Structure formats: C-alpha cells, structure tokens
Amino acid sequence: MKNSFNYKMFILYFVVAAGLLAITKSWLMSLGIFLLIILVDRMLAVYEEKKRRKEDS
C-alpha cells in the first residue's frame, strides 16, 4: 500500500471538517463525524487494495 501524503485529500478533509463545524456548531460532534468519515475511507482503501491483489494473482 502506498503511504505518500496526498495534498488534495488533505484539502478535501479540511473543507469537510470546516463544513461539519459550520453545520453542527459543535466541536465534538464534528470530530466524531469526521473520524467516521476517515475510518470509512481507510476501510474502503484497504478493501480496494485487497481486491486488486486478488485480481492480480
């Protein structure tokens, strides 16, 4: 799995976090939702990588 820093994703995460904070007006709720978004993103990346490796075999 490639572990390089993706600046476009960082900017997207920042915009989403700012939007969540503006919508919810609560740091804790925004943090919880943001962490769930990151968790789902990572899980999808791992699933995609496993699927790609299985197809290459």
Sheet having the most strands: none
- Mean pLDDT across the residues is 88
Assembly type of the chains comes to single chain
Strand segment tally: 0
Low-confidence stretches: none
What best-fitting shape do the alpha-carbon axes yield? elongated
- Beta percentage is under 5%
Number of helices: 2
State the helicity in percent bands: over 70%
Summarize the topology.
Elements lengths: L6 H18 L2 H30 L1
Helix pairs in contact: 1-2
3D structure, described in words:
The chain is an all-alpha fold and 57 residues long. 84% of the residues lie in helices and 0% in strands. The chain contains 2 helices and no strands. The longest helix is centred in the C-terminal third of the chain and has 30 residues, at 27-56. It is elongated and about 50 Å long. The mean pLDDT is 88.
Structure keywords:
57 residues; mainly alpha; 2 helices
Provide a quick synopsis of the model:
The protein has 57 residues and is mainly alpha-helical. Helices cover 84% and strands 0% of the residues.
